Amino acid sequence: MSIYFYLDIDKILKQRRWTLSKLAEETGISITQLCNIRASKRASLNTVNKIASSLNEKDLSKILSFEENSK
């Protein structure tokens, strides 16, 4: 069994009631890159850290989601 985590852009937008443009503005990450992350749900640790820092979020479970794979 494996547990995977991914950056959940939709979760962030919903919690903050923000648009993608607002998230891009607050984080300094381009809308294009955020769209790519949103589609693939993959982000580097640097990007996760940058978003968490921009949001003053110390609890990563608020911006990450987890999936369990039984394989």
From TrEMBL:
<dbReference type="GO" id="GO:0003677">
    <property type="term" value="F:DNA binding"/>
</dbReference>
<dbReference type="InterPro" id="IPR010982">
    <property type="entry name" value="Lambda_DNA-bd_dom_sf"/>
</dbReference>
<dbReference type="Pfam" id="PF13443">
    <property type="entry name" value="HTH_26"/>
</dbReference>
<dbReference type="InterPro" id="IPR001387">
    <property type="entry name" value="Cro/C1-type_HTH"/>
</dbReference>
<protein>
    <submittedName>
        <fullName>XRE family transcriptional regulator</fullName>
    </submittedName>
</protein>
<feature type="domain" description="HTH cro/C1-type">
    <location>
        <begin position="9"/>
        <end position="63"/>
    </location>
</feature>
